[in-house]
Amino acid sequence: MANNSAVITDSFKVEKEEKVNKKLRWAIVGCGGISQTHMGAIKKIPQIEVVGCCDIKPDRLKVMKDQWGIEAGYEKWDDLLREIKPDVIDVCTPNGVHCPAVVAAVEAGCHAITEKPMAMNPAECQQMIDAAKANDRKLAVGFQYRYHPVCEMFTRAKAAGDIGDIMFVKCQALRRRGIPNWGVFGQKELQGGGPMIDIGVHIIESAHYCIGEPRPIAASGNIWTYIGDKPSEVESMWPGWDWKTFTVEDLAVGQVRFDNGCIMQIESSFSAHIDHDIWNFTIMGTKGGFNFDTATLFTDHAGTMINAKAGYLPNPGGDSLFVAKLKNFANGILEGTPLRAPGESGLAVQKIIDGVYRSAAAGKEVAID
After folding, report:
1. Which residues contact 32 (CB under 8 A, 6 or more apart)?
2. What phi and psi, each to the nearest 5 degrees, are found at residue 120?
3. Looking at residue 60, what is its pLDDT?
4. Same domain flag for 72 and 157
5. More exposed terminus of the chain, fewer Cβ within 10 Å: N or C?
6. 200 near 171, Cβ under 8 Å?
7. Which residues of the chain have pLDDT under 50?
8. Is residue 56 located within the same domain as residue 170?
9. How far apart, in whole angstroms, are the C-alpha atoms of residue 284 and residue 68?
C-alpha cells in the first residue's frame, strides 16, 4: 500500500489505563517469525498473560525464553495443553498445522485463534468450526486488515448510504519480485498454495468484510508458475529462495460470484512483471465507489462528481492491527463482545481461495457449496 499513508497521520493522545479484572492465560503454538509480532502486540494488551509456548524446534523455544521470558516451552502441544491448561491457544504455525492444533486446543477446553489463512481448505475450516461449537469454545481467525482505519472508513460510508448496492470489487496483492526465501511458503503440501493463500488472503478478507461478507457461489480462474521454480538470477529483496521445492503458483487470477450478484476479481503474485508492488482493493457501488490504497470515496454530490479523500485517519503502523485483532478476541472471551473475524468468516474466505484453485485445476468455472 503506497499512497494512503499520506492521509494517515499520528495524533497526540493519552492512553487510558484499563482496569483488568481477569487475565486470560494465553499460549503460543508455533514460535516462528509471526509469533514474535504476536508477542509484541500482546505486551500491549493487559487482558493477556502468556503462560507457555510450543514449537517442534528447540531453538525457537529458546528465543521465546530468552527474548520474552516464557519458561514453559514444549515440543508437543498435547504436553502444553495437559500441563499448562491455558485459556487460549494462539496458532502461529505453517498453514498445514492450523487445523489439528485448533481442534486439539478446543477439545482440551481452550479458546483458539489461528493465523491466516484459517486452514488448508474449506473442509478443515469446517472441522475447526464444528469442534469449537461442540466444545462451546470461541474460534477466531487472525484477519487483521479488516481493522485497518481505511476499512473502517469504508464501512462507515457504506452504513451512511454513500455506496449503495455493491456490484463489483477488485482485489490486488501483487509483488514485482517477492518470493519468500525463508519458511515453507513455496511448498504446496505444507501451505496449500502460493501468493493467493499467503498475501492475497489479506486483501480478499478485508474486501469481503467491507462488502458485507456475501456467500460465494461460483469461481473461475487460473494459476501459473514461471519464476519460483527456477534459480534466483535477478536482483530482488529476497534472493535465493528454495526453487527446488517450489510447488506453488507465481500468479493467481480469479473471479468469484456471490449470492447477491456481486462479483470479485482477484490478482495475486509473488513475481509479477509490473511497475511496482500493488496492495489494494477497489469497490464499485450503485451510489459510490472506493479505493483502499488512496482512502478515497467516489460519489456524486450537488450535481458534481466528487473524489472525497480522507483528511485524517489513525496511523495503522507498527503492530497496531495485531493489537486490534488479538484484543477483539480477548474481549470476546471475557466480555462476550462480537468477534470481527469468527471461524465462519475464515471459512468463507477459504471457499473463495479454494474455488479459484479448483477452477484452475478443472479448467472451468466451479460451484462453491
Report:
1. 55, 60, 92, 93, 183
2. -85, -30
3. 98
4. no
5. C
6. yes
7. 1-2, 5-15
8. no
9. 45
